[in-house]
Design goal:
This protein is mainly alpha-helical and about 140 residues long. The protein has six helices and no strands. The chain starts with 9 loop residues before the first helix and ends with a helix.
Amino acid sequence: MDPNLFHIDYGRLIELVTALSLTAIFIERALAPLFESRWFIDRTEAREYIPAHSLVNTKTTVPEQSERPKRKGIREFIAVVVSFAVCYFWDIDAMSIMLQSKETVTLPGMLLTAGIISGGAKGSNVLFQNVLDIMSSAERERKGK
């Protein structure tokens, strides 16, 4: 590609950033009932892992749930998968749109866009929970508020 022909259409870029931001907020809000449910929190919240062999000589009892580690990072994985599904279904490829380089969407572009959207979903989660204080009672209980 000739570097002299490179041009970014800023009107298109603003529309793209707006669309990605709104998509991230929509996905975050769509996943909130799952992520903030008591069932999901109980299964994924990280607790201190105490191996069973270290409990042999101790007189304190440890609840059963701390005998196995909880799954950390599952929220991010789910957000990326859902974001990719949205990108795939609606043919969203931010790089191809921004650079106007392809007439069709590409798989690497959709994967990158899914990462951008899921990262934005995590950011909007922080906005809703920490700044606006919007969260479920289970999430509020987990955070001790």
